[in-house]
Write the structure tokens for this entry.
Amino acid sequence: MATRFFAFAFMLFAAAFSLNAESLFQPYNLDFEDGYLKEMPNGWQTPQKLFKMGYQIGLSDSMKQNGRYSLHMKYVYKPADSTVDLVGSVFQSIKSNPYKGRKIKFSMAVYPILDIGATVKVWVNTRDVFDGMIKIVRSDKQKPKQRQWQRFEVEIDVDSSCETINYGFLLEGAGDLFVDDAKFTVLGDDSTQNDSPASLNPKSIPYLKSFAKLYGYLKYYYPSTEGRYANWDLISIAGLKLAESCKSNQDFIDKFSNFFYPVAPLYKISDKTNPALIDYKQPKEADGKTACIWLHKGTFSEVENEVQSSRIININESMRTSDGLALQAIDLNDFPSGNFKFTVKSKAKILSNGSFGDIYLRFESGTFQPIAVARLNQVITDSKWTTYTIEGSMPQNAKVLRIGISLYGEGSVWFDEMKMMISGSDGKFKDVSIKNPNFEDAQTNFVNGWMVPEMSTNAGYSVKQDKSTFSEGKASIIISNEDSPGIKHPDAGYIYTTSINNDLLLSFPACVYADSIQTYPKADSEFDYSKSGKNRYFLPNSLDKYTNMTVAIDAWFVLNQTHPFEISNEKSDAALEDALQLSAKSSGDDALNNVLNKLLAYYQDSQARAWKNTNSKRYAIPLLFEKINDKIYVTESSSELNIMPGTELIAIEGKPAVQYLSENFIPYISASNTDWAFTRALAEFRTGDYSSSINITVKDSSGISKNINLIRNIHVNELMPNRPPRTIELDSSIIYIDATRILDTEFKEGINHLMNYKTLVVDLRGISQMSEHFLGMFTEKPISPIQWNLNYYALPDKKMTTISNLAANIKTISRLKNLKVIFLTDNRTIGFSEAIASLVKFNSLGTIIGQTTNGNAGEIAAIRLPAGFNMSFTIVKGFTPDGILIHKKGIEPDIKVLPTLEAIQAGIDPIIFKAYEIGKSK
């Protein structure tokens, strides 16, 4: 058979990559204040090749327009060839949804010190869903003036087809360039359209709550083509105004019976005593092969990654998260670059449309360095044994051949009698040795010579030997998922019915018929956005009452439907009512942010928070604190303040400190335990706008009190808890590493050095930057893995939820098995650090010293809310290897060490001190 050949192809068994830049929800860090000196600022990107070309790019404090830092780009090396084009660029990429149909302006202050012929420009481009360029504008008409600050700017219209907006600056040629104070502005914004915040009429609240549910169900679970591209912010604003005017349930039914028709053409609201029936058969326009649902992975999300995505998908195609794949790598060093011929016998049992078997040959210059990929020109669906052939010319410099055999979708595929040949200079073919090409050699759980990626087993595929089915010999290999149900989903035309209050029902199709263009039935009218009382391109903002309510109900519905730590219906209902009342009378970013964080607090999720990207609260007073029992003490102080560690914080703004924090911060903090709530509160009360002040009263060790007015004039990261460097020798026999500040690659590079010590101290007090796989270095025994549960939602109210177990096996290498290993934990041990602590405890991989961990092991996801707000919370739940949910329980240390006033006063870290003692003991 003929061959499909793809140069530099990225097949399923290739390393994944994307042409799209890593997109943010909104502009972030435009003043370049977030980040570390001489490093890339947070939120900004640059092609890695620029560093290899000789560019230096990083934050600088030597030349700035305002604040602490600017961004400095410098070309270091002079090119030998003067014709070489030197273009260095730094940029940011954001999702376009809030800006479609608007004109935006991007500007930036620049300070050039340029060589002859060099120039600087700022630019913006818009790109579609396929990363194709729609428009690009550059500041070509503005000419840089040497050694002075000047502002460059560009404007661009954002089309409805735009998926992402990229913007930044570029240096053409050699020289130095400082940039600062970037601004991203939406033009034509009209604040006169705002409705002033005001308290709600109590009589309207039941109908507003009903609308919140109606809005959420149809926005996130009615998979219509019209709804996919609607302006839901304005729909919500119009609906909230209408719900506020309702006088009875019947009035609500009358007003909303057709309200959503243009975006959800087939839905009904009815009284529970007389439920409405929807007769939904396949429309004649539909093709019979397409039926669509919303499938949400993790939560409702505009972004797509390993733990979160929201897609409208066809239930007649496979919904599995990957192929079922078996791989083998073959050394090609002894073979010339001639022609190749690959053959294999295969047959398939296909159970769903779009499912098939396939074969890939990937040629590499080195491990995972693809040169080219070849595959069949047709897929495998035949139920009879058939010989399949791939042939072609060997790519030059191919050192490794990676064979991949796979099943995509539902069913089974068998392979047998595999053979690979390569021709020499004489034109004769020579066999290439394939391990176990007839699949006769196998053990209980694997076929020798063949590797199965975890992504395949996690997707429900099994790869094993089959002695009952073969072409020749005694066995074949079978890739199958017939025993695995995959992702659960409703059938075509399925009508979902649910309550939106005690007396009203909502019914709608959760799986709609469609063709390749449109879902059916098709709406014959567009939504009248003027019902909102706003211009269609009104920019939602926190000074508008109905924007704030929209943000609140959107956040509530997301949490109610997808937060894995469930709360009772009564609490959820109270949270919605609370959010509606508070958001309606809130005014400004801070007030609305408090509403969102109070909503999150219902879930007791220590990793949850809400924020706005433009929030300027990145400055802090120059003090750090810790709560011990019922008192708060200073632990760190800047050198300018005459406040010693151990000084007690008595009052804040004239109120007892604990009372002040309890009233002003604790209600807005989501936490799995009280200690963490106060840890967060102590961190947050320090922060605020630049140069804002706060009054505190402190008492020193001699009992003398004094009142101090402190200015927030340092960056939040400028004063950090006293902790050793990332890696340091505590003693000739003891070495310390901080897992919250080093990466897997750094640990791997330092393994030989670690062998020089008898004791390794691993700090887990924070969020680990290392994965759990480094634990395999400390033992030769199998490690029972932690269990990670990720939910897929195909119906509302978690009625049809698929739980995917993301457990990853840890390979035991045991190179450091002779080390005594000590792990440090406290209440800041959260997320991945807590998972590592759980593995250590369960598998007896070391001694845990410190305090009980936070009780919140899991992976988080971030979502965008209207008006520039964001929310993050846990979406992947962590369970101990024996299946116990870690949430709110935490991991107990083997040796408990509590903080003491004496240790604070002495400047001692008692947990590290105890680890040192244990490390020195025999």
Summary: Residues 545-562 form the longest helix (18 residues). The CA atoms of residues 665 and 684 lie 8 Å apart. Confidence is low (pLDDT under 50) at residues 1-21, 80-84.
